[in-house]
Amino acid sequence: MDLTLRINRNTGLKGLTFWGQWALAQGFVVSLLFILALQHTGAVEFYYRVCAALTVLASVPAYTFSGVYRKRDSYLTGLGRLFIGWSITMAALACMAFICKADALFSRQVILSWAVYGFLGQALLYAPLHGFSKYYQRSRKSAHRTLIVGTGELALGLAKKLSLENLPLVGLVSTGVAAQLTPDVPRIVGEQKDLLELITTHDIRRLYITLPLSEAAKIEAMYVDLLGANVDVVWVPDLNSLTLLNHSVRVVDGLPAIYLNESPLTSQPTAALSKSLLEKSVALLAIILLSPALALIALAVKFNSPGPVFFKQDRHGWNGKVIQVWKFRSMRVHDDLEVKQASRNDSRITPVGRFIRRTSLDELPQLFNVLQGHMALVGPRPHAIAHNNYYSGKILAYMARHRIKPGITGLAQINGCRGETDTIDKMQKRVEIDLKYINNWSLWLDLKILVKTPFTLLSKDIY
User: Which residues form the Bacterial sugar transferase domain (predicted)?
Assistant: First the structure.
């Protein structure tokens, strides 16, 4: 669990950085399109103006999905994200032109030149803006000479995090608690009673307080003393005993609020909408392209053993709502009263079923679950309700997996957590990875998981 709460990702300087660079980039590409159209036809026709407007609109989800203009990226990584975002935008425009049969209106020379020079121009704009952003961050960090009040585990963890971010940490201030210091952590520069003197002596600009909630009175008294010290005071509450989920800090009507447990789908509604629209579009396209394969698998299942083509099972979905998950039937029809996981050499599995399970082709009908809005392409895999009831009382925060839509694939699956979970430890590991996915969810992470999934389909643990 993070030692410090992260600030809401949709607010603050990060948002300004994205929208500022995005506005400059879109201003450039729109101007370039108009100049090229003017040179070619002598006028900026109406359809070129429509193309410019659609470009601006399409670039918002495309650039958000690709993670363009992230401050922590290196220059080359940033260019890679920019290329992906611009390529998605161009692909979206091409699809719209094809669907509307408007491609004949545009000059191929103009559009190809615009696509190439549009990216190159954005790349040239990105270089100074990226450099300025990095310089601004470094200058801000160098001005924040810092002290940490406390010497406990939280203080030491915070010190390491500040050191990784190259913040000028002067040292720790003892509060009377015995410190367990090692050579790789900052020195203790003094005691709490000398705090005001230490701030003046070391020209401290920021002070982190890492005292626990049990010392609230001491924290309040310290804060009152520091009001006239011209120093930024940051309280880092000790929440290490809690299992946090997608946590953040925000302001609600002027009051600071710590969100300990929140679904990413409610904390980032715009990104969640982009995820839903993108996944439904991909699912629909996949169903169309894979329809011959789906028909062949259905026939093979039907003729291999008597029974229905599809296996439908009630499972928990988003926020614990019960949904029906579809799969191609891979087992013989049986009357087991107990829900039992498939195991290696399971006698219930048919010959065709063994093949489609081994290649994960039995999961393809879940594309229809994605279209219905019950599932996502990427998310924690849904388990049978009986298994959820069993593990929820044995694994901490087990049901927190359902704070996001279940997926056809997920972070746990590409990390080798597939097949039978015949021990508590195996399920515990899967849950830990699922919670890690929820805490770090982004459209960019979803894309990486989708790209990696095909390379894990022949895992020896699938049966």
Answer: 275-458
Asked if 174 and 151 count as a contact pair (C-beta separation under 8 A), the reply is yes
User: Residue 438: what are its φ and ψ, rounded to 5°?
Assistant: -65, -40
Residue 267 DSSP SS3? helix
Segment 329-348, tens digit of pLDDT: 988 876 655 556 665 667 78
> In whole angstroms, what is the distance from residue 280 CA to residue 375 CA?
10
* 175 contact partners, CB below 8 Å, separation of at least 6: 149, 150, 151, 191, 192, 211, 218
> Which residue from 273, 366, 281 is spatially nearest to 88, judged by alpha carbons?
281
- Burial environment of residue 72 by CB neighbours within 10 A (0 to 12, 13 to 18, 19 or more): exposed
Quote the mean pLDDT of the chain.
Answer: 81
Give the percent of the chain with pLDDT over 90: 23
Segments in 228-329 forming alpha helices (H) = 264-267, 269-289, 291-304
Residue for token digits 């108009």? Answer: 34
Q: pLDDT class for 168, splitting at 50, 70, 90?
A: confident
Per residue in 172-220, pLDDT (tens digit) is 888 876 555 555 556 788 888 888 888 888 888 888 888 877 788 888 8
List pLDDT tens digits, range 32-46: 999 999 998 888 888
At 162, give phi and psi (nearest 5°). -65, -35
pLDDT digits (tens, 9 = 90+) for 92-120: 999 888 888 888 889 999 999 999 999 99
Pairing of strands 232-235, 322-328: unpaired
> Which is nearest to 315 in space by CA: 239, 387, 411?
387
Sequence-ordered list of residues with C-beta below 8 angstroms from that of 287, at least 6 positions apart, any chain: 294, 367, 368, 371
First to last CA, the chain: 33
Task: Identify whether the C-beta of residue 231 lies closer than 8 Å to the C-beta of residue 199.
Answer: yes
The structure's pTM equals 0.59
* Secondary structure (DSSP) of 400-436: GGGGS--EEE-HHHHTT--S---SHHHHHHHHHHHHH
Instruction: Express the helix, strand and coil content of the chain in percent, nearest 5 each.
Output: 55, 15, 30
The H or E element that residue 234 is part of is strand 232-235
- The answer, yes or no, to whether residue 3 has pLDDT greater than 50, is no
Q: Which CATH architecture has domain 146-241?
A: 3-Layer(aba) Sandwich (3.40)
Residue 244 makes CB contacts below 8 A (sequence gap 6+) with 1, 2, 5, 260, 261, 439
pLDDT at 357: 86
